[in-house]
């Protein structure tokens, strides 16, 4: 099963804390339910953000890698998580709007079918109005789809850029940790 980037970041964060066992007392561990509640789809951003937004411990107790790259890694992790939340929110809004348009379309189609029946009391102008309304709903649906995919493409681009930046920072961090251990 494939993990999302947020879970990968949390896993990397756990590895980071395991690498720095001498500093393990200064970082509070988040419980699994605080990190991400996948059953309900809710995430505990306040705990995640507050953990990274405050500087814990004295800079003298932190490793050089933590001082140089710790905040950068945290910021990129938060940016990735935020972009994923934007994607989920945008998908939910899009789905709701498309369902609403589909309901309107079904309603207009049923009225149009009833109006086209032989011996219907509906005037031809009303049939034309219903046909125009149907075309408007379908064009609105098409515009909604196009704007959704444009938005998602920009958000995915942001996620990709943040992921590349995060992995670059993570690689430099691990290089520093390796150098500190070989010198220490």
The CA-CA distance between the termini, in Å, is 39 Å
Residue share in helix: over 70%
Q: Indicate the radius of gyration in whole angstroms.
A: 26 Å
Low-confidence runs (pLDDT<50, min 5 residues)?
16-45, 47-60
Overall 3D shape = rod-shaped
User: Structural class per helix/strand content?
Assistant: mainly alpha
Number of helices: 5
Strand content: under 5%
Main sheet attributes: strand count, strand direction, barrel closure: none
| N-to-C series of helices and strands | HHHHH
Compute the number of strand runs. Answer: 0
Number of domains: 1
Q: Overall mean pLDDT score?
A: 75
Overview of the molecule:
With 184 residues, this protein is mostly helical. It has one domain (5-183). Helix content is 76%, strand content 0%. Helix 1 (5-19) runs antiparallel to helix 4, helix 3 runs antiparallel to helix 4 (64-115) and helix 4 runs antiparallel to helix 5 (124-183). The protein is rod-shaped and about 95 Å long. Mean pLDDT is 75; it is low at 16-45 and 47-60.
